[in-house]
């Protein structure tokens, strides 16, 4: 029975994080200034724990292995029992971000992140071969139809897409790096330089968190228009295709702005998986570019200037 285990870099991260926390704490304590208050070592240790314990918990949550067999699929972590899902009991399979969740007829479910596993792409192909298309959600059904060689016209009905999970995760990593740099600078450098670099680190962390939140949005496209669901807004942003007059996009198609008397901004195909990217480009070509919508590509910072000073 083949087993897909966590990617080597994930296992290495789980091993190295406690060591890294210990090294950073040691460096900060050894460089502690003589005039520092008595509670400063305790503060350093608390900050280190607040930063690295959540990372260690996240790494543990992602340390899942997936086992395939002729009778079903199983998911398990180190020192835990396998959770089995027989093929005949699976009633629903969905993809949300980087996770695939499989629901069983008894109400139980299992979840795993294929991108964090060795041979994760082959794992998804095998799972899609075993599951019937009607129990798959939009993203997985598109992958299954593409795997079977179904013509593009058969999958143009609707697309629900989110950025690949690595993009929001990258924003959180940037935020963590910013906070870590600010803490280290505050304790190791002269006061003036430490304050400047700490402020810069906090700004970088805030930008990382903002980017991660922005990349949690979901885009829905169909023959009538597009709907953008953003976690920080109560109601979705909707726009019909016949309202669009101008389409601005970055050179790599990661950022889009539709102008139709108002501006609607969203993620572009560059943030999506291959199958969803091709389908979104097909929507844009069919309903925008082929209907005479003005197309303005932007390079470098020009797109952001247009975003800010429209």
Sequence of strands across the biggest β-sheet: 1-2-3-4
Radius of gyration: 23 Å
- As a percent range, the share of strand residues is 15-25%
The residue ranges in which pLDDT falls below 50 over 5 or more consecutive positions are 150-155
Number of helices: 8
Let me know the number of strands.
15
Mean pLDDT: 79
The rounded distance between the terminal residues' Cα atoms is 57 Å
Sheet with the most strands, sense and barrel status: 4 strands, antiparallel
Overall shape: it is flat
Helix content estimate: 40-55%
Q: What structural class is derived from the secondary structure elements?
A: alpha+beta
Order of helical and strand elements: EHHEEEEEEHHEHHEEEEEEHEH
Q: Count the domains.
A: 2
Task: Explain the layout of strands and helices.
Blueprint: E1 3-4, H1 8-30, H2 40-62, E2 65-69, E3 72-76, E4 83-86, E5 90-96, E6 99-104, E7 109-112, H3 120-130, H4 138-147, E8 158-161, H5 166-188, H6 191-214, E9 218-222, E10 225-229, E11 237-240, E12 246-250, E13 255-259, E14 263-267, H7 274-287, E15 294-298, H8 302-308
Parallel strand pairs: 12-15
Antiparallel strand pairs: 1-2, 2-3, 3-4, 5-6, 6-7, 8-9, 9-10, 10-11, 12-13, 13-14
Core attributes:
2 domains, single chain, 44% helix, 15 strands, 8 helices, 310 residues, four-stranded antiparallel beta sheet, alpha+beta, PH-domain like, flat
Descriptive notes:
By secondary structure, this protein is an alpha+beta fold. It has two domains: 1-150, no CATH class; 218-308, PH-domain like (Roll). 44% of the residues lie in helices and 23% in strands. It has helices spanning 8-30, 40-62, 120-130, 138-147, 166-188, 191-214, 274-287, 302-308, and strands at residues 3-4, 65-69, 72-76, 83-86, 90-96, 99-104, 109-112, 158-161, 218-222, 225-229, 237-240, 246-250, 255-259, 263-267, 294-298. The chain has a four-stranded antiparallel beta sheet, with helices on one face. It is flat, with a radius of gyration of 23 Å. The model is unreliable at 150-155 (pLDDT under 50).
């Amino acid at each position: 029975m083949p087993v897909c285990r966590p990617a080597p870099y994930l296992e290495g991260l789980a091993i190295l994080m406690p060591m890294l926390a210990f090294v950073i704490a040691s460096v900060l304590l050894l460089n502690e200034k003589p005039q520092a208050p008595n509670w400063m070592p305790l503060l350093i240790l608390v900050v280190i724990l607040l930063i690295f314990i959540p990372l260690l918990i996240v790494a543990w949550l992602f340390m899942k292995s997936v086992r395939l067999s002729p009778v079903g699929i199983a998911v398990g972590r180190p020192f835990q029992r396998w959770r089995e899902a027989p093929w005949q009991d699976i009633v629903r399979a969905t993809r949300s971000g980087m996770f695939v969740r499989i629901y069983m007829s008894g109400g139980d479910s299992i979840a795993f992140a294929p991108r964090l596993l060795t041979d994760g792409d082959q794992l998804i192909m095998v799972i899609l071969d075993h599951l019937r298309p009607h129990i798959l959600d939009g993203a997985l059904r598109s992958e299954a139809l593409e795997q079977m060689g179904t013509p593009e016209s058969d999958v143009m009905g609707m697309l629900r897409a989110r950025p690949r999970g690595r993009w929001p995760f990258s924003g959180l990593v940037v935020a963590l790096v910013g906070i870590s740099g600010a803490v280290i600078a505050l304790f190791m450098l002269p006061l003036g330089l430490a304050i400047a670099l700490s402020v810069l680190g906090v700004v970088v962390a805030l930008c990382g968190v903002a980017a991660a939140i922005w990349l949690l949005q979901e885009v829905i496209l169909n023959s009538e228009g597009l709907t953008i669901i953003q976690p920080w807004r109560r109601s979705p942003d909707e726009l019909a295709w016949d309202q669009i007059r101008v389409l601005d996009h970055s050179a790599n198609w990661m950022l889009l702005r539709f102008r139709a008397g108002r501006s609607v901004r969203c993620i572009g195909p560059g943030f999506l998986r291959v199958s969803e990217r091709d389908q979104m480009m097909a929507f844009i070509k069919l309903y925008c570019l082929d209907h005479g919508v003005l197309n303005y590509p932007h390079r470098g910072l020009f797109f952001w200037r247009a975003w800010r000073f429209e």
